[in-house]
Amino acid sequence: MLIGLVGKPSSGKSTFFKASTLAEVEIANYPFTTIKPNHGIGFVSIDCVDKEFNKQCNPREGFCIAHKRFLPMDILDVAGLVPGAYEGKGKGNQFLDDLRQADAFIHIIDISGSTDENGNSVSPLTYDPTKDVEFLDFELDMWYYQILNKGWGKFSRQTHHENLNIKSSLAKQLSGLKITEDDVENAIKKLKLSHDPINWSDDELKSLASELRKTKLMIIAANKLDVDGSLFNLDKIKKKFPNYIIIGCSAEIELALREAAKNNLIEYVPGEKNFKIKGKLSEKQEKGLSFVKEYLKKFETSGVQEILNKLVFEMLGYIAIYPGGVNKLEDSEGRVLPDCFLMPKDSSALDFAYKLHTDFGKNFIRAIDVKNKRTVGKEYKLNHKDVIEIVYRK
């Protein structure tokens, strides 16, 4: 799974990326700090099932703190986009192409209104962040339109003369954007388009591009909520865009917490509303963590982990599945519940067998729901946080 971070320059994308991954990236308050995309591993969190077995798990990938399991996923931070990005302004078309394989987007906006449309610093609350939502929607729509329109005349004529299936033909053409036949069919039905594309007008093509773009789910991270007055803008933007999921956050607060925990100054579980000081702090560190504590008292969390979890588990509908045995939860090296995998919604026991190993899928006999020791078949639909043992022919 790949999540793309998008937004204008200086909105806090790189700070959000670093807070999510603790990868070393350049962060500065001026446009185009990021030129090449940053790629790192972020984490979504769940309440670990190890507690149900009175165990402490030992993850091979990710980590577990206080029975909170953190599962890895890929995050891509591309350079900031400016108006006209789809036309190549600020190398925007190149940056957009970096996002083709993303499963979903997190749009980072500066909710404090302290950066203009080009990412230049202005006084807080002087720029209207609702414009950022409209700007990115337009840029993404036009990006999809350009991809769709490239060679459209030849494509539509061939589809017409050879009487090709428009669903499969168009899905194949747009496979690089992860567009499916169902996506194409739903968009055509919604827009009531003719099934012969040679008859589509340019406006209809733009409308189709917009509908197909919306198949790429997006959540809005209203960043810099720690700036005084930003809460007013957050309320305003939620009212104006009721169809978007918008969550306020402070990537700087989350980054400060994770850096402090990394340096053993505090105990902190990402996404929690409290932290515990355990190291000796300098006066500057005490002052900084005091500000963080006041922020958490007001907003409960930094919002960063909430955004990642919301996108992956609720919007994309992924579920977390553990491999395990009824009689043994440890692997050959003694690690308890070492693995946990993110699976698409509606995955079956057979899908999970193939996820673990091709041979497990090919030689599948049955699966066992470890929690209640119940045998299930290959068509069994997995539930979030299932522990599954796969029995196969050896």
Summarize this structure briefly.
The chain is built from 13 helices and 14 strands.
Q: What are its keywords?
A:
7-stranded mixed β-sheet, alpha/beta, 5-stranded mixed β-sheet, Rossmann fold, 36% helix, 13 helices, 394 residues, single chain, Ubiquitin-like (UB roll), 2 domains
Describe the structure.
The strands form 3 sheets. Strands 1, 2, 3, 4, 5, 6 and 7 form a 7-stranded mixed β-sheet that branches. Strands 11-10-14-12-13 form a 5-stranded mixed β-sheet. Strands 8-9 form a two-stranded antiparallel sheet. A hairpin with an 8-residue loop joins strand 8 (266-267) and strand 9 (276-277). Helices cover 36% and strands 18% of the residues. It has helices at 13-21, 92-97, 130-149, 152-161, 166-173, 181-191, 202-213, 230-240, 251-262, 283-299, 304-315, 349-356, 358-362; strands at residues 2-6, 38-47, 63-65, 68-77, 104-110, 217-223, 246-248, 266-267, 276-277, 319-323, 341-343, 364-369, 374-376, 387-392. It is an alpha/beta fold and 394 residues long. Helix 3 packs across helix 7 (202-213), helix 5 packs across helix 6 and helix 6 (181-191) crosses helix 7 (202-213). The chain is built from 13 helices and 14 strands.
